[in-house]
Specification:
- Helix 2 crosses helix 6 (about 180-205) and helix 6 packs antiparallel against helix 7.
- The protein is about 35% helix and about 25% strand.
- It has helices spanning about 5-10, 15-25, 65-70, 95-100, 115-125, 180-205, 205-215; strands at about 35-40, 45-55, 80, 90, 105-115, 130-135, 140-145, 150-155, 155-160, 165, 170-175.
- The chain is elongated.
- It is α/β, with parallel strands linked by helices and about 220 residues long.
- Strands 1, 2, 3, 4, 5, 6, 7, 10 and 11 form a nine-stranded mixed sheet that branches. Strands 8-9 form a two-stranded antiparallel ribbon.
- It has seven helices and eleven strands.
- A hairpin with a 2-residue loop joins strand 8 and strand 9.
- The model has no long low-confidence stretch (mean pLDDT about 95).
Amino acid sequence: MTLDELIAGFRRVATASVADAVDKIAGKTGFMDETVKPRINDRKIVGPAVTILEGPTDEFLPPQHALDAIDQSAPGSVICIAISGEKNVAVWGGLMTAGAVANKHEGAVLDGGVRDITEIRRDYDFPVFSRSVSPGTTLGRFRTYSANEPVMIGGVIVHAGDIIVADVDGVVVVPREHAEAVLLMSTEIDDRELEQAKLIIEAGSLREGLAKYGRI
């Protein structure tokens, strides 16, 4: 499958089904900690990850790798920023959102905080999933170290090019090498649950639906 076909497919399936499929296909957890959640809207996002790593510094340096990634990454990318779970600074704000919107990116997933929420909601309605909300700046505290190398966000390793699937249920990382198999299984799970839900309603019994399909 092409990347466009994968993205279109993952938009159609439930995020929970994707999480289940990653468990089985990849043999590891693909969903992030529950604290990484939507802060701007309820929109579902699907797209390839662009990864940024931040670390401590006492220098007043801009987040250069992140700024470059926003301008240089392909439209539809999900900008993923790791900062070792630091909750008390914002790694994303209004100006970075403006750049992401200008470059037609899909969303942002952050292991740290976001700020300028009122501005982002009012002017851009751009999806941001973050561990926290904080008014604090990274300047003089953190700087970017690298781009498009493996990073840890929400307890999950994210590689550049992995498919991010996220909505109000949470954030799931689909390893790129397993993406086609995960999509196929996710679709099968969705179809089976639709049939199961119909049986439960018709039979008036949760137990009958569970007994036939062996799934909850």
